[in-house]
Amino acid sequence: MRRVNGLATVGRALTCGGAVEKRLAQAALMSTCSSSSLNSHIFSQKLADRLGLSRPSLVRRVAGTMLFSVAASSLAQDALAKEKPRSEKFLPKEVVLYQYEACPFCNKVKAFLDYYNIPYKIVEVNPISKKEIKWSDYKKVPILKVDGEQMVDSSDIIDKLFHRINPDSSIPDGEEKKWREWVDNHLVHVLSPNIYRSTSEALESFDYITTHGNFSFTERLVAKYAGAAAMYFVSKKLKKKHNITDERAALYEAAETWVDALDGRHYLGLSDI
């Protein structure tokens, strides 16, 4: 039970929250393993056993990296009952998030917005042309527009929003900072080698990514094949750069590190304040 709660609360370190089933559905479509393959079945069963999950079929759908996306975008049901009300001091008229559906940094921002019940619109960005953000000098996602003001970089976005929601609070420099840096500097580098582990898995991922957004048939084909090829090679470079010899083992290790750090607590971050 501790492992289930611990994994679910990875998102809390990213200042996350939101509807569990919605995020599970997103992760299911982004599965890095084919549910029909023997290796996927073995991996899923092993992951279920290690994390104490009783539904291996569910684990298969969220196997590998997207298990972290679920955790980073979801809270356990008990946390939903503790969901914070929308701040009376921060009531923006329009919030627009420019994102890639599978981007872990974008999921950080979405989860923060969900946790604080801040309504927002989503604009899916074409990963090849990026035509949706041509108006901006910043060419990465996420980009958040709050009543016309542009905010960039997921951690900076979260910090700015947190201060506006809680103007009398300060972000601690100790444990919260340590684990935010661990997420940004270590955990995210485990993601790509797992999502784009093979050419078939890279194509599967981009097939899902390109189903979101207002893309033409041609744009979808170009984004799917060009994007999958690019990210496959990027993932191999990241794997080499960060000395990842076994992407699945790295995934297990990251999960264990996080659960051990929680030590039975609900949060490791801003949500503790």
TrEMBL record:
It is an enzyme of class 5 (isomerase). Pathway: Lipid metabolism; prostaglandin biosynthesis. GO terms for biological process: prostaglandin biosynthetic process. Its main location: membrane. It comes from Gossypium raimondii. Keywords: Fatty acid biosynthesis, Fatty acid metabolism, Isomerase, Lipid biosynthesis, Lipid metabolism, Membrane, Prostaglandin biosynthesis, Prostaglandin metabolism, Transmembrane, Transmembrane helix. The lineage of its organism: Eukaryota, Viridiplantae, Streptophyta, Embryophyta, Tracheophyta. InterPro entries: GLR_AS, Glutathione-S-Trfase_C_sf, Glutathione_S-Trfase, Glutathione_S-Trfase_N, PGES2, PGES2_C, Thioredoxin-like_sf. GO terms for molecular function: prostaglandin-E synthase activity. GO terms for cellular component: endomembrane system; mitochondrion. This is Prostaglandin E synthase 2. It is a single-pass membrane protein. Its EC number is 5.3.99.3. Belongs to the GST superfamily. Residues 93-169 form the GST N-terminal domain. It catalyses: prostaglandin H2 = prostaglandin E2; prostaglandin H2 = (12S)-hydroxy-(5Z,8E,10E)-heptadecatrienoate + malonaldehyde. It is found in: Endomembrane system.
